[in-house]
Design brief:
Elements lengths: L5 E5 H14 L4 E5 L1 H5 L3 H7 L5 E4 L2 H9 L5 E4 L9 H6 L3 E4 L2 H10 L6 E5 L14 H10 L3 E5 L12 H10 L7 E4 L1 H6 L7 E2 L25 E13 L4 E2 L5 E2 L4 E6 L16 E4 L2 E6 L7 E4 L11 E5 L5 H8 L3 H6 L7 E4 L1
Length: about 350
């Protein structure tokens, strides 16, 4: 018998969440962000479900070529651009768009003698301070790209779009330095797409919302109308009754306050479940609310079965997904839903369902 842990990706949920993005930004083109193997959901699986998107954003050339080889003809954007001049011929060959965020990339393009105009997304640093040209560097960078015939889209990335008035300073700066430039613009990630229609412009770039997790700490995914795309599930593989005072797991961090029944579940940090999830982190056992007790170990974790009188070996356990948002697990573990979704291990079987 195979180990019971599995991840299930709901393709209709992905399409539903794409529809939510469309409704919030009806006049913008939609660049679905499917980097990190589709946020852990399987890049090609996600792309097929989201084929109604106007484009796909990925991290690197290998991901982009895989999409082209699979027959996807949409705009495909390299979010960090190319990493070496040697990649430029393949970028042109496959008709890819690339972020341009540094002068060395422009110099590499100038030396490459490209026959086909490149699709360049010129990234401006307005306060994220990660990638992008400084505002005073924009005119020269834009001139260089336009002189080589590049088709330019202007972009930036918001650092605090999940906060009230969180984009004000960056948007004001972006509007000021791009005033009079009649070029396509792209600013909004998931949080800005949902909260700031004034920043939708020509292209929006939804990521985490497509997978059914919330980009905001003050609004849940269900409040936003999003549906979880991934359910991580397993089963109870062992049970035991323990008396009061019994300690559970590595380090004995959990001590039973009274006699109780506990269960061992086939899921651990080697599967991508967060090791730092504390006792009390919610789980569903056969659809009933329960909690983790003790430390998560490599291949197993322990749950409280004392409130589930019909508990049995083989009973299904939901670690996150339907009726248990990944954001709840992330909050309990002191992290974010992005990390948990992306961290699901390759050893966990994953299937798509409608």
């Amino acid at each position: 018998m195979p180990r019971p842990i599995r991840a299930t990706v709901n393709l209709s949920a992905l399409r539903h969440n794409l529809g939510i993005a469309r409704r919030h930004a009806p006049r913008a083109r939609l660049m679905a962000v499917i980097k990190a193997n589709g946020y852990g959901h399987g890049m090609l699986r996600v792309a097929k479900a989201l084929e109604a998107a106007d484009g796909f954003a990925v991290l690197n050339l290998a991901e982009a070529i895989a999409l082209r080889d699979a027959g996807f003809g949409q705009d495909i954007l390299l979010l960090e651009g190319f990493f070496s001049a040697n990649e430029i011929p393949l970028l042109v060959q496959h008709g890819l768009s690339t972020v341009i965020h540094a002068q060395w990339q422009i110099e590499a393009l100038l030396q490459a003698s490209i026959a086909t105009p490149i699709q360049a997304w010129l990234k401006i640093n307005t306060g994220m301070n990660r990638l992008g040209f400084q505002p005073d560097e924009l005119p020269a960078a834009l001139q260089n790209l336009q002189q080589m015939g590049a088709k330019v889209t202007l972009m930036t990335h918001f650092a605090r779009a999940d906060e009230k008035n969180g984009i004000t300073d960056q948007l004001t700066l972006f509007n000021a330095i791009t005033h009079g430039l009649h070029l396509p613009r792209s600013l909004s990630n998931s949080a800005a797409l949902l909260s700031y229609p004034e920043a939708h412009d020509d292209w929006v770039r939804p990521g985490i919302m497509l997978y059914g997790a919330s980009p905001m700490s003050h609004q849940t995914s269900s409040e936003l109308g999003l549906k979880p795309a991934m359910t991580l599930s397993s089963e109870v593989i062992a049970m035991r009754d323990i008396p009061a005072g019994t300690r559970v797991g590595y380090g004995g961090t959990f001590c039973a306050p009274s006699a109780m029944r506990i269960g061992t579940v086939a899921c651990g940090y080697a599967d991508g479940y967060p090791r730092h999830a504390p006792s009390g982190t919610p789980v569903l056992v056969d659809g009933q609310q329960s909690r983790i007790i003790g430390r998560v170990s490599m291949d197993m974790l322990t749950v409280d079965l004392s409130g589930i009188p019909d508990a049995r070996i083989g009973m299904p356990v939901t670690l996150w997904g339907d009726d248990l948002p990944v954001d709840e697990i992330a909050t309990a573990a002191g992290t974010i839903g992005y990390e948990l979704l992306c961290a699901v291990a390759a050893r966990v079987p994953m299937t798509g369902i409608e």
